[in-house]
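[Discussion] Sanity-checking designs against the backbone

I'm trying to build intuition for which residues belong where. Below is a structure token string of 230 positions. I'd appreciate it if someone posts a full sequence so I can compare it with mine line by line.
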């Protein structure tokens, strides 16, 4: 909730403050919703129970069989605009952005406790050029490739459990709020409005190779079923 407020303030053009709902579908246990509301109150996260008629008024496509509904602060993030906003802000402060450049090696100097990263070697996937970028320090923000990058610097203890997920983009905006299923977090528990579409997601499975991800048909069907419950 704190991150939500910070991002919405410093990068407002990448966040659509749509608001959100947590709803208990006919398939869900009511007990969790009591713990959800108590947990929100205990941690200072804004959440308010609203009537079922109000929930269906603001979101007419909701499952008419929902048993409880809670209004929360939420927003939809434009991921591309968020990333490029950060990149262009960095450029304005003197940074150079190299897109389509793969790290091939990390140059480490010194011994023992004096070891430090001195440079990074990268390969331009579109230009074919190999570059060496000297640096005072290296920030590893490589996501699922983070363990591979850390190993290049001699840090073998960074273990990354990469995950893959299936999301379904509908061809229209079926909701105008972020709609969450009020259950313990699981696959297919959210619908997010994103510009002119809505996204149902997501599954979460271990991926051995983040460069080659499967899209199982049964997971696509699972997301459509989950969306229908909401």
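Best answer:
Here's mine. Compare freely.
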């Amino acid at each position: 909730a704190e991150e939500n407020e910070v991002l919405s303030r410093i990068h407002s053009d990448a966040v659509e403050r749509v608001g959100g709902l947590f709803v208990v579908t006919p398939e869900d246990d009511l007990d969790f919703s009591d713990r959800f509301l108590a947990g929100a109150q205990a941690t200072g996260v804004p959440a308010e129970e609203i009537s079922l008629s109000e929930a269906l008024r603001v979101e007419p496509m909701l499952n008419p069989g929902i048993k409880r509904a809670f209004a929360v602060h939420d927003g939809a993030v434009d991921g591309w605009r968020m990333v490029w906003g950060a990149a262009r802000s960095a450029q304005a402060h003197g940074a150079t952005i190299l897109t389509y450049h793969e790290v091939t090696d990390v140059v480490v100097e010194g011994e023992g406790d004096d070891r430090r990263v001195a440079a990074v070697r990268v390969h331009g996937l579109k230009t074919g050029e190999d570059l060496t970028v000297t640096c005072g320090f290296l920030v590893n923000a490589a996501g699922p490739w983070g363990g591979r990058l850390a190993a290049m610097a001699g840090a073998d203890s960074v273990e990354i459990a990469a995950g893959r997920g299936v999301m379904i983009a509908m061809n229209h905006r079926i909701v105008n709020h972020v709609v969450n299923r009020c259950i313990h977090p699981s696959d297919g528990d959210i619908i997010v409005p994103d510009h002119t579409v809505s996204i149902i997601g997501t599954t979460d499975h271990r991926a051995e190779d983040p460069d080659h991800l499967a899209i199982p048909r049964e997971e696509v069907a699972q997301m459509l079923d989950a969306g229908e419950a909401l």
